[in-house]
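Researcher: Go.
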Amino acid sequence: MNYEEIKDTKPQQMGELVDRSEDGENYVIKLEEDKVYEVAPIAYYVWSLCDGNSTVDEIINKISTEAELAQDQVRDPVVMVINELVNASLVSLTQS
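Model: Structure:
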């Protein structure tokens, strides 16, 4: 999905953070007992912002402000991460 398709959706995180990876670089998120994912810090950060209340556009604005980067610099990477999280069932999208 591209930005225009998901900008007004409200991503909701699924699963729960259980730990950091053994090397301490990544985060471990458990979806079910037999479904555990190790995600990179940026993916964890985006996942943590998926509260079901904020739209994708609002998440992009927040990251842009915090990182002191232009929105067009963070838009595509954030959309890519959200798409990957959706594909892994770690995030669900609902219409606002």
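Model: The helical segments are 3-6, 41-49, 56-67, 71-87.
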